[in-house]
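Our platform keeps sequence and structure together, in a single record for each protein. Such a record has a labelled line for the sequence and another for the backbone structure tokens. This encoding replaces a full spatial description with a residue-level series of whole-number codes. Below, we set out a record of this kind in full and without editing:
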Amino acid sequence: MSSHRFMRPSRRAFLAGGTAFAASLAAPSISRASARPVFTHGVQSGDVDTMSGMIWTRTDRPARVMMEVSTTESFANARQLAPLTAGPSNDFAVKRMVDGLPSDQDIFYRFVAADLNDLQATSDPIVGQFRTAPTARRDVRFAWSGDTAGQGWGIDDEGMRTYATMAQHRPDFFIHSGDTIYSDGPMQDEVEKDGQLIWKNATLIDEKRKVAETLDEFRGQWKYNMMDEHVREMNALCPTFFQWDDHEVVNNWSDAKDLSGDDRYTEKNVHVLAARSAKAFHEMTPISYTPAEPGRVYRKIGYGPMLDVFFLDLRSYRAGNSLGLQENPADEATTLLGAEQIAWLKRELVNSSATWKVIACDMPIGLVVRDGERVEAISNGEDGSAKGREFEIADLLRFIKTAKIDNTVWFTADVHYTAAHYYNPDKAAFQDFEPFWEFVSGPLHAGTFGPNALDGTFGPEVKFVKAPTEEQGANLPPSMGLQFFGLVDIDGATQQMTVRLMDRADQELWKITLDPKGASI
């Protein structure tokens, strides 16, 4: 195990973030005009590779944000970066790609804000850190999960504790597999069941009391999550690689979503809601910017010679949900990833020289996820030959086999329980693919559901599952403990991948070690 696993967490980042955050909440608005700027929601980093990474913060007013980076916590010989302006057009959030970094190094970054109306009025500094990817083999660890602050379960007295549990493992990075916010899930101060108080949202803001419709309401969804101390502390220590799914906009969203019958919404146009959500998503996360398609979520991040991560977007390009029984793959109703994203993924997989090709998918392949009678995910529940959206997956799996692309592993969330699935062509209706694993995790801090039915088209076998029992029912609160994340370790010497399914109490529920095909172990 590499030595950076055992570094003590930097308290400076936590304390700076926590002090500034508390000040921003405590200072009355009438006096803040003359006070020094504060950073309102901590720091974030993301999309880190061997030589670069994104950094993010947000101020409480128009400000000039100075920043510097260093390979030492003391910021000796720090490199000064050109300042950025935090303004109202981006809700006072700033982010940038920091490049030219040394590989396999702990990188510390520091922000200081100066009030644009009085540059002598400067904030306290706020600090974060991340580790760049290696160019040679070393142990790599990452975590993944999804589903934050859903089903009305917000920040209680314990906070979003799964984030604190993950942070203790000091992952090199964290993959947030979607449903990063729940824009369509209003919260109440208290939740009762059978006349008993079972949950109290100790922290709540007005933007979380209704569905998000305006741009500021979508921004508020993100700010709410970052009001949690565990989220902010993990953000200061560990990069997050974000993807999105439906609840960033509205449940089961596609371009065809009809909100005419939903009385919660005065804005009925899903295209308007999606545009506002996308702007908030890119403002409030350290996701990198793709000039070829501004706003794109799918991308590849190379994390050294043993690992490439391919982030998919099953939401932005899909046709509307249907019964999923189309028998012609050319039918536009079968579109899920879309031709351009599929071509990109095939090209990047072929070009990848990494030992492991991790496919971060925001929805599971073989689990049946419904939108009423319609298919919300991929599988139509028929167990037979590929139809509907299954055509795209069948084509992709066939391509991976034909192109002899080894060591693809799929990671996902969405269904609010944890499982390990082995896709076996010998058990499948569609058999033209090599066996592979899919690992499911989540929720991070949301209601627990499941387990879902399996579709036999691609031959999934359940090797492990942890979900509510029939007696426990559905939508269990986080206090029940069924909140899940996964840990993945790639051994620098053997290149073996060990996957562990964990719960928020840090119990190891199940694990497996995979040997890399075609690599010397």
In short: Helices lie at 11-26, 29-32, 161-168, 215-225, 229-237, 270-284, 339-351, 390-402. Confidence is low (pLDDT under 50) at residues 1-32.
